[in-house]
Amino acid sequence: MTTIGYIVGSISSTSINRRLARAFERVAPDGVTLVEIPIGDLPHYSPDHDSDLPAAARAFKQAVSDVDGVLIVTPEYSRSIPGVLKNALDWAVRPYGANVFGGKPTAVVGTSPGGTGAALAQQHLKTILSHLDAPTLGQPEGFIQSTPDLFTEDGQVTDPRTAAFLRGYLDAFVALVERYRVRVGV
Ligand SMILES: Cc1cc2nc3c(=O)[nH]c(=O)nc-3n(C[C@H](O)[C@H](O)[C@H](O)COP(=O)(O)O)c2cc1C
Fold first, then answer.
1. How does 86-118 read in b/e, with b if 16+ C-beta sit within 10 Å?
2. pLDDT of 45 above 80
3. What counts of helices (H) and strands (E) characterise the chain?
4. Which of 18, 77, 123 is the best mutation target for the ligand 1 pocket, counting ligand atoms within 8 Å of the beta carbon and taking the most?
5. pTM for the whole thing?
């Protein structure tokens, strides 16, 4: 059994990236469970909290620790990642020595109405994850341009080619997670 945690980098009530995350839930293969790791209730990170983490931050860090891999589904804000996602990653890596992303397999995907499909946000995010020492899926890349009806509210994908891409993407990520699981077990 493999458990993939997913983080949605948007707290918008109408988020298309949340729809994309739900689409991934729908295409999960047998033996793979997707669970959300919520970030919307995290307070702003400050080193002032390092000696006594707030409950929401502890729960977030524990949730990342508990899963086999983390899929980050994020929009692009001003050619980078939204602040709410960066804030979560700052909690994840602090206090010093308590980085829960170290060695954790990750994958980065996102959707945008724009033609670049949130590509620049994903490139920034991969730089951050590299610093966090998290192995990250290289291929396929998940730059998805959304149209208004591509994903329904409950995550159905109206375009068969996109649905097939999502299945293949998740398969590739699960393969990465399994490779790292074996390495840890040696
Ligand atoms: C503050 C802000 C900045 C944005 N910057 C970009 C951008 O740089 N590139 C892009 O493709 N879309 C950009 N957008 C449009 C988002 O892709 C679009 O709002 C998308 O729906 C956000 O994803 P979400 O619905 O999952 O929140 C921006 C939106 C906001 C609110």
1. bebbbbbbbeeeebbbeebbbbbbbbbeeeebb
2. yes
3. 5, 5
4. 77
5. 0.97
